[in-house]
Design a protein that fits this description.
alpha/beta, eight-stranded mixed beta sheet, four-stranded antiparallel beta sheet, 12 strands, elongated, binds adenosine-5'-triphosphate, binds nickel (II) ion, nucleotide-binding, membrane, ABC_transporter-like_CS
Length: 390
């Protein structure tokens, strides 16, 4: 199982009036093909900035200061990796929403309020799967039952074939000017809407035809988030990045959407990178987990291992702060406050709140090291000199 995406030493700063916010400091994470990776941590620890930096959608006053983001387009072919930070913005634009889709917390921001939701999903199909749809239409034209203007079937087929070779907005615009091709455009749109309705139906929505014809304001939050997922899936992404995609929904709908993502993971999407601050969600959905603290990655492990054998004192504290049904007494909270990232603590950023703090934790930044076959931790308790000067 090879990697699909990997961030190496990703460092991002925000240049604000209060000073330089060191939001990410050499963050390393990697997601394998066919897996769901969960990124967890308290609010403000840099989860969103991490994935936004990886996709290069960090806005002013933010700036990616260093690191690499490797994308492995073909599974197992590591030599074909591309560094997304070295690519042009135009190149990135074709990658985003094509090989990699993103969904966010707020579905309204992703939907156009004055367009039928079915058309919005259809548009994504037209954009990304025009070739396959054109093929289907050409096949249909071959059927004697398909009605065409007498004597133009061969000409139409030839023209459609040419138009379908360049699946972009320009070819649609040109084809609109040629009367015969205008029909092809109509057919493409009809086929796209049909597929949009189909995928909406697959997402567990009753009466998909009716829903496809509605506008966003007619739909509930959960329904809108499903439509956003449908748009994201229309391009058959290799990687889906979901940033708190279910946090705004009520618990039942949240569970439905998570089940849906799990189901889709088997059939439609190869890999998922999911941000959440809900450890219950992680336990339910993820194969691997990365724990972030104050702009650094402090631990990464398989989900079961992380829950049963957490190493980093922050992970231990985070797990202890989760309410359990049978827990006696008070809920533990982590002592101290999340640090200000303009002046982050020296050494290990967690040291002011750590119960096991040692002298060197205040001066030396711990490196992410292997403590098990697939278990990494950035903590001086586990590197070779660990206990010697405790
Ligand atoms: N536009 C910005 N200007 C200045 N600082 C920013 C900006 N965006 C993010 N930051 C800083 O980057 C840090 C990480 O923010 P980020 O949104 O990644 O946190 P998060 O882990 O996603 O939190 P949450 O769970 O609340 O979404 C925060 O400390 C924040 O102050
Ligand atoms: Ni966030």
């Amino acid at each position: 199982m090879g990697k699909i995406i990997e961030a190496i030493d990703l460092t991002t700063h925000f240049y604000t009036y209060e000073g330089v916010v060191k939001a990410l400091d050499k963050v390393c994470i990697s997601v394998d093909h066919g897996t769901t990776f969960g990124l967890v941590g308290e609010s403000g620890c840099g989860k969103s900035v991490t994935v936004r930096s990886m996709m290069r959608i960090i806005q002013e006053p933010g700036r990616i200061e260093g690191g690499k983001v490797l994308f492995f387009p073909t599974e197992g072919a590591n030599e074909k990796a591309v560094d997304l930070l070295s690519k042009s913005e135009a190149w990135m634009q074709t990658l985003r929403g094509d090989r990699i889709s993103m969904i966010f917390q707020e579905p309204n921001a992703a939907l156009n309020p004055i367009m039928r939701v079915g058309d919005q999903v259809a548009e994504s199909f037209i954009f990304h799967r025009k070739r396959s749809m054109s093929k289907k239409i050409l096949e249909d034209l071959g059927h004697p039952e398909t009605r065409v203007f007498p004597g133009t079937r061969r000409l139409q087929k030839a023209l459609y074939a040419i138009a379908s070779q360049t699946p972009n907005a320009l070819s649609l615009r040109i084809s609109r000017k040629i009367p015969l091709l205008r029909r092809w455009e109509k057919r493409i749109k009809r086929e796209a809407f049909r597929r949009a309705t189909e995928i909406i139906g697959h997402l567990g929505i009753a009466h998909p035809e009716e829903v496809a014809r509605s506008y966003p304001h007619n739909l509930s939050g959960g329904m809108k988030q499903r439509i956003v997922i449908a748009i994201a899936l229309a391009c058959k992404p290799d990687l889906l990045i979901a940033d708190e995609a279910t946090s705004n929904l009520d618990v039942t709908v949240q569970a439905q959407i998570l089940d849906l993502l799990k189901e889709l993971k088997k059939t439609e999407i190869s890999s998922i990178l999911m941000i959440t601050h809900d450890l219950g969600v992680v336990a339910e959905t993820c194969d691997r987990v990365g724990v972030m603290y104050a702009g650094t990655l402090c631990e990464e492990a398989d989900v079961k291992e992380l829950f049963t054998d957490p190493k980093h004192p922050y992970t231990v504290a985070l797990l202890a702060s989760v309410p359990r049904f049978h827990q006696e007494g008070e809920l533990k909270t982590i002592e101290g406050v999340v640090p200000n990232l303009v002046h982050p603590p020296s050494g290990c950023r967690f040291h002011p709140r750590c119960a096991h703090v040692m002298k060197r934790c205040k001066v030396e930044v711990p490196e992410l090291i292997n403590v098990g076959e697939k278990h990494k931790v950035a903590c001086h308790l586990y590197d070779s000199k660990g206990e010697s000067d405790a």
